[in-house]
Amino acid sequence: MPRAFDDETGGHGGDLDRAAQRWGKSEQELLDFSSNVNPLGPPPGLLDHLSEVLPEIVNYPTPQARLLRKELARFLNLSRERLLLGNGANELIHLLLLWRRPGRVWIPAPTFSEYERAAVLAGAVVERYALLPEKDLDISRFEDNLRSGDLAVLCNPNNPTGVFYPRSDLIKLVEKATEHGADVMVDESFIPLTGKPGESLRDLHRDNLWIALSLTKLWCLPGLRLGCMIGPEDKVRELTRWGDPWRVNVMAQKAGLFCLSQKDYLKESLVLIETERQYLSEKFKATGCFQVYEGAANYLLVKGTISGFEVAEFQDCLAGEGVFIRRADNFYGLDQRYFRVAVRSRKENKVLMQAVGKYLESKESTGNSDSGYDRKDINRETFGGDKQ
Fold this sequence. Notes:
By secondary structure, the protein is α/β, with parallel strands linked by helices. Helix content is 36%, strand content 15%.
């Protein structure tokens, strides 16, 4: 089975160049369900706007993205002194850990792999705690384990499980960390796409609390990279003073300002995500061959339940139909039965389910009698043949 993780990319989704080489297709021929960005795409008019401002790349970017920082602070209802902008949330996560140099970093399993990569680069000891999709967040595990100089990390909603943890539970975690002299970083990159802004901790003023937020995910700008970190004013001031003043390039700043001006974009995004997440969940479950973990974000974690299911084979089969999914077997705590799919448009989601149908038909034709899959029991509409 091909390796799901490699040192160059960290095993992330969205690597269309490598996928195209592997399956002999052009990048344009692959429908990318591996990248969990806003399915609505960039706000209308953004590409034309960027074409107009392209000549400005001959100038240095505004230091610290000054105007964007001001407008984003207003959008998030924060003081700009608590806000640090960067070349994607991931860059800021690495920056924070390299600067704070925690002795130990507590990382949930499964979760986004960059927390561990950043911790290792910062010289920290990595401690994993199980956070499976079937389990609640158990704050008590930190009572006797956290110590001064530690950093506890949580992604909310978690990636790849999509599980959303209540604000009240996370406040308890911050309180425990405070008692022990530890820091907490909560990655809220997907909260804007859940429709639950009130559950964010960004309004919680604590000297040991950091919030990461990916604007790349929110506005579908993975090729530009844009994110922010929210933290204590004095520490953000120090990072601002000594950090790279040109961290956010000209085009990313212009894109961010344009996106902030699009007032109805987020509302339309939330309607699409809610509708299509439910659609995909129902279609996968209707096959009787998959377990779907009901998440709150713009993606779904799914487990194959037929006998002998191998996600590498499944990915290969779907790629042959022009559909690229995210294997999840390189997340700690998950195995070869798991994969993640992004929520996309109805038309694209139908293509995915049609490819899934062809995979299941191929398994039936090979005589997999132990699969529990009976073709005659499944309506054709399961695989995208409906009229919606």
